[in-house]
């Protein structure tokens, strides 16, 4: 079954070929046309809720609010929905530009796929026995090939040593991973002590137990997962992700890098958006917000073009790295401002390529280098070329894909000789509405700032995957936050359920 949507050209994303150079703008189902549907406006109009941002947090919040009959306006800076999760259609092939992989341990995400009939509309990144089915390891002592099983076993052994800080593979420090700050097994001070460690600190503790290759695998897996460096990624975040995947590194591939929505993430995002519009959602795209003023039980939101919209409650889903561009009145608390100033550390690069022939089984790790990990990712349309997905950590100041796109090709060749037809990517770091990747934090951050980031700012609910309780920095976390914020708004502006005598409170 092919997607019912028509792909239109977005401002976002790039292709690079030697012949045509860098070309901006990719086609996607995520572009919304026409860009504006606002029937209620004017200074006297007060929305029950305004949702800022149409990533998954904003989409779920907006859908839940209109479903409960609330007069809701969605404001989005881009020309498309999805935020840091969107898929592009390039000559018949779907490329995931940001958030990609899904899994059934992501319960809210699964529920959304199920609700919109997509629960079995899944494809796999991994192709058993696809062409070039081996793992290239190039970590300082020359390049060599391992079987996928050998590479998996080596990674698992090293990761278990890395993660086993409590002698119980994280079960004591992170017994219920949705509660980083609540722990019924050990005193909070023990969690704080682990939070003080960076991944580099932890590597220093255990490196004598690792071979040179194992050490390189850990040093490269940290930036692969978290987009930062071993120095600036907090170890507690790694421990939490280990807990979330069932305390077992064997689950990493299946949970993190295996299953995708067949028609692309933008197909699911469209289902949620279209559902909300059918239920009465009004919206304005290409509407960047510059200020949020919260006074007299009314929140006023002003765009960069000077339009102001008023609401009882605002659900703000703007990512942490972008928050410094927004003026809040009254100002955010000093603690939240400090957290935003320190910021997250994920500046990963994700690059796709279309390469000639069958490389569907390809896997590999190069470290150190421009790229860290590579995945053969199924055939492109037509079945004669392969889609390749590759990740770099924080390459700022080293490899800028917009300034040196030709260097992307050289980096890919280090994994395997390949005839590259085109490179496809979204540069999240230079994107003004993301400014970074998914959110990972440095040492000494979570125990100090997480609760503050999650707290509301007067009548502004702050909802983002960046500070989710569970799958923070995942699609699942965005959905958690959007649903929670919508629930809070509904509790406050009132839901007229059946058999209730309560009246809406504003
Ligand atoms: C390269 C990459 C790979 C990833 N891989 C995975 C994966 O495989 N699986 C997974 O589960 N997760 C993955 N993630 C994480 C996931 O994509 C994010 O956690 C999730 O999409 C964040 O959703 P959100 O709604 O909280 O934020 P966003 O999606 O960032 O939504 C925020 C919205 O606010 C808008 N906005 C920003 N500023 C303004 C403004 N001033 N005015 C109006 N609107 C504004 C933005 O345009 C955006 O649409 C990945 C992320 C990246 C970048």
Number of strands: 24
Could you tell me the mean pLDDT?
A: 95
CATH superfamily of the largest domain: FAD/NAD(P)-binding domain
State the end-to-end distance.
Answer: 46 Å
CATH architecture of the largest domain: 3-Layer(bba) Sandwich
CATH level-1 class of the largest domain: Alpha Beta
Present as ligands are: flavin-adenine dinucleotide
Remind me, CATH topology of the largest domain?
A: FAD/NAD(P)-binding domain
Q: Per the principal axes of the C-alpha atoms, what is the gross shape?
A: globular
Describe the structure.
With 506 residues, the chain is α+β, with helices and mostly antiparallel strands. The protein folds into two domains: 8-86 and 264-343 and 440-493, 3-Layer(bba) Sandwich (FAD/NAD(P)-binding domain); 126-257 and 349-427, Polyamine Oxidase, Chain A, domain 2. Helix content is 28%, strand content 22%. The chain contains 13 helices and 24 strands. The protein has helices spanning 56-67, 107-115, 148-163, 188-195, 199-206, 212-226, 235-244, 252-256, 265-278, 334-342, 405-413, 446-454, 475-493; strands spanning 8-9, 14-17, 21-24, 27-28, 36-37, 46-52, 72-75, 87-90, 93-96, 122-124, 135-138, 143-146, 259-261, 282-284, 289-295, 298-303, 308-316, 327-329, 349-356, 363-366, 373-379, 385-392, 420-425, 460-462. Strands 3-2-23-19-22-21-20-11-12 form a nine-stranded mixed sheet, with helices on both faces. Strands 5, 6, 7, 14, 15, 16, 17, 18 and 24 form a nine-stranded mixed sheet that branches. Strands 1-4 form a two-stranded antiparallel sheet. Helix 1 links the parallel strand 6 (46-52) and strand 7 (72-75). The mean pLDDT is 95. Residues 52-58, 75-78, 83-85, 98-101, 288-289, 317-319, 322, 348, 350, 428, 433-434, 437-438, 464-465, 473-478 line the site of flavin-adenine dinucleotide.
């Amino acid at each position: 079954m092919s997607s019912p949507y028509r792909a239109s050209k977005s401002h976002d994303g790039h292709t690079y070929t030697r012949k045509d150079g860098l070309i901006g703008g990719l086609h996607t189902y995520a572009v919304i046309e026409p860009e504006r549907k606002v029937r209620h406006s004017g200074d006297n109009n007060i929305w029950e809720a305004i949702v800022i941002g149409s990533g998954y947090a904003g989409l779920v919040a907006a859908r839940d609010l209109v479903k409960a009959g609330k007069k809701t306006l969605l404001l989005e800076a881009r020309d498309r929905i999805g935020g840091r999760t969107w898929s592009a259609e390039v000559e018949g092939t779907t490329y995931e530009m940001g958030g990609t992989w899904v899994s059934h341990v992501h319960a809210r995400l699964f529920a959304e796929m199920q609700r919109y009939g997509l629960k079995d509309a899944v494809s796999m990144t991994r192709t058993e026995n696809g062409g070039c089915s081996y793992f290239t390891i190039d970590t300082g002592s020359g390049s060599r090939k391992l079987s996928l099983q050998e590479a998996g076993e080596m990674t698992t052994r090293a990761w278990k040593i890395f993660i086993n800080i409590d002698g119980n593979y994280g079960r004591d420090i992170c017994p219920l991973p949705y509660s980083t700050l609540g722990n019924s097994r050990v005193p909070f001070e023990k969690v704080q002590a682990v939070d003080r460690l960076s991944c580099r600190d932890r590597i220093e503790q255990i490196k004598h137990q690792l071979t040179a290759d194992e050490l390189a695998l850990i040093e490269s897996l940290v930036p692969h997962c978290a987009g930062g460096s071993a120095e600036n990624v907090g170890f507690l975040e790694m421990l939490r992700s280990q807990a979330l995947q069932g305390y077992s590194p064997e689950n990493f591939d299946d949970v993190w890098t295996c299953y995708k929505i067949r028609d692309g993430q933008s197909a699911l995002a469209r289902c949620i958006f279209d559902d909300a519009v059918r239920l009465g959602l009004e919206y304005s795209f290409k509407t960047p917000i510059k200020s949020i003023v919260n006074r007299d039980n009314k929140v006023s939101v002003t765009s960069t073009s000077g339009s102001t919209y008023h609401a009882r409650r605002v659900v703000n889903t703007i990512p942490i790295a972008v928050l410094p561009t927004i003026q809040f009145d009254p100002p955010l608390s000093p603690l939240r401002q400090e957290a935003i100033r320190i910021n997250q550390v994920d500046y990963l690069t994700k690059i796709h390529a279309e390469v000639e022939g069958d490389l569907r089984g390809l896997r590999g790790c190069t470290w150190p280098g421009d790229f860290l990990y590579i995945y053969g990712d199924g055939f492109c349309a037509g079945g004669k070329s392969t889609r390749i997905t590759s990740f770099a950590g924080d390459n700022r100041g080293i490899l800028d894909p917009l300034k040196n796109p030709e260097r992307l090709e050289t980096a890919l060749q280090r994994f395997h000789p390949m005839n590259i037809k085109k490179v496809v990517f979204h540069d999240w770091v230079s994107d003004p509405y993301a400014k970074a990747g998914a959110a990972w934090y440095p040492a000494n951050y979570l125990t100090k700032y997480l609760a503050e980031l999650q707290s509301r700012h007067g009548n502004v609910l702050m909802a983002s995957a960046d500070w989710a309780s569970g799958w923070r920095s995942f699609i699942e976390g965005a959905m958690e936050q959007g649903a929670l914020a919508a629930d809070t708004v509904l509790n406050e502006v009132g839901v007229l359920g059946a058999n209730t005598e309560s009246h809406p409170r504003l």
